[in-house]
Amino acid sequence: MVLGSALPAPATPDPGAQKKLVDQRIDSLKNHLDDTSAALATAYKNLKATQDKLPAARSVLAKAQATAQAADQAKAAAAQQLQVAQANEAKARSDLEKATDEVAAGRKRIAQFAAQIYQEQGFGQLDVALSSTEPQQFADRLAMVDTVLDVQSSTMDRLTTERANLTALEDHLTALRVDSDRKKKAAEAALARATQAQAAAAKAQADLQALAGSQQRAATAYEDQVAADKAQLSSMRVEQARLKKVLAERAARARARAAAAAKARAAAEARRRAAEAAKGHHSSGGSSGGSTGGSSDGSTGGSSGGSSTSTGYLSRPVRTGWVSSEFGMRLHPIYHVWRLHSGMDFAVDCGTPVYAAAPGTIIQAGYTYSYGNRIVIDHGLVDGVGLASTYNHLSRIIAGGSVGRGELIGYSGTTGDSTGCHLHFEVLENGDFVNPRKWL
Asked: Region (Disordered) spans which residues (predicted)?
């Protein structure tokens, strides 16, 4: 999985709904395919669990990145406002310095003027002007005095104005400093939020990458287990082919024995009738031999072998529990292919007693690659077919050789490829799987 630095915000499915769907799949795996590899079921569950977390993790990352982007924009805006406020403060400080210099210069001029008046005890030269005796000279000197007084008044007025401007500039500078300080704090807060948001986004990115790594590992484990499970399935098919051959050979020998016995009976009957004819006796119409209703191979006859309805020949192998999975084709929730569920699953606790469904001979009792502890009972010829039953995933096997109907042969378990305690019960006709309900 390749992750970019930024992901678009997807339309996230409801994680709860996705979890419910996965739980349903797992329940389907447990309830309908108990004979699936437990390791495969675990790998599948782990894979789906990580896959379900990915959309939520991507959503968290997208939100964190959006928050970080907004925080960066707010930080940039705050920094710009701070720069403007600092520029305004600098300009106000420059204006204040200029106004301070002008006030100082005005005060200096006033001081010099006052000092001159004090030193000259009056207007000095102006007194000379006023002491003039000629009218024109007096008028000129009087005009000069007016000019001096105007200059003095103008200087005082300008000084007053400059001092007022100075006070206003000081107040303005104080306000700008407060504004700069506020915007500086806002910029610092925006920077902290942006840093925090970026850290959250980085964590979300790291979490998503870690989850993607987990998903990849889970996918690899799942794929490896699928391959192993398929190898086990192939092994089961090889074992089934071997068992079919064994059962077919046993059925052929049973048929041969039955045919030989029937031939011997027919020959004996022919000899008996020939002997009676030689003595001149005549039959009364009844047969002293006739059909025995059975055979030397252990066949009990049963009901019509071609019927699809229950014959009742086989007894229920367990006396508790319920059927959690029937015989038949079904869609595998992991492989997503149709495959045969070759028997009936009885939902029982581990350690539940398991009984022989009919009389017969145990021809296999031990551990197999996928079935775990397994018992195979050959029931001989029944209604013309070689009938056998199997009992799988047992926790313990306690019987061997010939067994009678209802005899304890073992205890249920979850050995082999099994996701939980149950009994997987199979019925075979001439080595081929058939629906056990036909015989129960």
From this structure: 265-315
